[in-house]
Structures are given as C-alpha cells and as structure tokens.
Design goal:
By secondary structure, the chain is of the alpha/beta class. The chain has nine helices and 14 strands. The chain has two domains: about 120 residues, HUPs (Rossmann fold, 3-Layer(aba) Sandwich), CATH 3.40.50.620; about 130 residues, Rossmann fold (3-Layer(aba) Sandwich).
Length: about 300
C-alpha cells in the first residue's frame, strides 16, 4: 500500500479553497480482486492471461468465472438433451483446466466459479458478490460493439458498476508505462471514480496523458476547461500527468493516432450515463474505435 497526496472534498470531488487546493494524504492500495469472465475461446484466454499478469503485478486475487445457459432446441429433429448436472460438471472441468494453466504459467493461485444463467447478468452479480475491483473481459471479432466484443462483453460494459477492462484478442501484457485518459472536460470527477486508474498508474509509475479531442480549434482555455483540469489534477495528485488537446474531425481517429504516436499501453474512458459515453460509443464511433484499438480499454462508470 502506498500513500499519495490527493486534493478533494469529503465526497471525493476535487475543489479549491481560494487560490489553493485543500489536500489530504490518501492511501492508494493495490487491487484486491480481479474477475475474468471466460468462455474458453482464444479471445477469452488472451484476456485471462492478461488478467493473470496484472494480478501477479498487483498481488490480487484472480477469479475465473463462466456463466452458461441451457441449449435451446432450434429444430424438430429429435436429439439427446444434456442434463444441467452434466453441463455443470463439464464446464467445471474446463474452467479448472484453464485455472491450472494460468497457475503454471504465472505462479499465482487462481479460483474458478461456474454458474447457470444469463452470462452478462451473472458476471455483473459475481463481480458485486466477490467485491471485484475490476472485470477483465476479452474482445473478439469485427464490426460494431456487439459484434466486436460479443453480446456478452458489450452487455457487461453497459450494465456493470465495476470497472471493466476490455482486452483485444491479440493483446500481450506489457508494463503500463503510458496511459491515455480521454476526457471532454465537461463532467465532475471523484476519487472513487478514478481509483482503478490511480491504482494502475501508481503500480507502474505510469505517465498519464489526459487527452481531449475536439473537431474545431479553439483559442485559449475556457473557464469550464480550466476548472475541469484543476479538478483532475487535484485528484491525480502526484501521479505524473499532462494535458493534451487535439483537433480532429474523428474522435476515434484522434485518440488512436495519439495512442500510436506515444506507445500507450492502456486507454481509459468514463461511461457517463446518456452523455459522452453513449455519443462516443454510438454504432458509428464504436465500429471505428473498437476495431482499431490494439490496446486494453478500461471503462470506468460514474453512475
């Protein structure tokens, strides 16, 4: 556990008193629990390997979780139905094998759970019940959000209150030395919202790039932007960070271009209800963003 200077009020929102921040010494602990939904696909195994490396670095508890539904007949041709017990046993055997491989490759203890039910609902519930600090889930395919990272992954990103780290199917874990946080400077932030980001940045002593993409160039900073930057800086405290404003007609192109130019290992965005997140992750933007993103995407939720 480390200590870090954070400037915030009792609700975790950064603020100023006169010309100065009111600052306190805040303990920033490493992640305790990481939950990894698995479906035994290559993309799932990539995500679980990434999560295992992250768990080893943070000394976190790692839980593999698989949710399944009973197969529904789609034909009138008779066939032998498998029982719930048989399906449960089969899935438990498969997930234990996955856990054993991770234990052997990373030298960490790995727990496993199997549950029948709607996958996205069961994953969200499992994260809450296990008090997971983060859900790490795989991305696969191509196309819009639902096709790209699968219906289950997309639903988890939308439903979960827990931070979700979406890992591309070909991602390889690297120390997270450079992080991009994409912000439009229009929302209040809090310590609780930023905590997963702060933990990762603190763990790897990363440089955090706070990047704003806008379609039209503006001269100078508006009062709202200055307040937002002050708020973010107050919350980040001693985490190394810098602000960058980029003019680009495409949000996704602007972010991805910046990521490529700065050898970034993680992209962070906040899921604001019915606002920036939905505009950014509309079908138009998501197809481009998710398809081109080659690094893990950490989604934080503010409501």
């Amino acid at each position: 556990m480390r200590t870090n200077v954070r400037c915030s009020d009792t609700n975790g929102s950064a603020y100023k008193a006169g010309p100065f921040y009111i600052c306190t010494l805040v303990e920033i602990s490493n992640m305790d629990t990481i939950l990894v939904p698995v479906d035994f696909s290559p993309a799932s195994r990539t995500a679980s390997s990434y999560a295992a490396a992250l768990a080893k670095a943070s000394k976190a508890r790692l839980i593999l979780f698989h949710a399944y539904m009973m197969p529904t007949p789609v034909t009138e041709v008779p066939y032998v139905m498998i029982s719930v017990n048989e399906l449960q046993t089969e899935n438990e055997q498969m997930i234990r094998r996955e856990a054993a491989v991770l234990h052997e490759n990373f030298g960490i203890e790995v727990e496993s759970q199997v549950q029948i039910g709607m996958p996205s609902d069961e994953i969200t519930l499992a994260a809450l019940e296990s008090k997971a600090d983060m859900i790490v889930i795989g991305m696969r395919g191509a196309g819009g959000l639902d096709k790209l990272i699968g219906n289950t992954s997309a639903s988890v990103v939308r439903k979960a209150k827990t931070p979700v780290l979406v890992v591309p199917h070909n991602a390889i874990f690297k120390p997270v030395n450079q992080i991009v946080y994409a912000s439009d400077f229009s929302y209040s932030s809090s310590l609780n919202l930023f905590r997963p980001l702060l933990e990762i940045a603190d763990m790897f002593q990363a440089l955090l790039h706070v990047v704003n993409i806008r379609k039209a160039a503006t001269i100078g900073n508006t009062e709202k932007e200055m307040q937002s930057k002050s708020m973010i800086s107050g919350l980040l405290g001693s985490v190394k960070h810098e602000f960058t404003i980029i003019t680009d007609e495409s949000i996704t192109h602007g972010i991805n271009n910046y990521v490529d130019q700065h050898d970034v290992q993680m992209l962070v965005m906040v899921a604001h209800k019915h606002t920036f997140f939905e505009r950014l992750f509309s079908r138009i933007h998501t197809t481009e963003m998710a398809y081109q993103t080659k690094i893990p995407l950490l989604v934080l939720h503010d409501g």
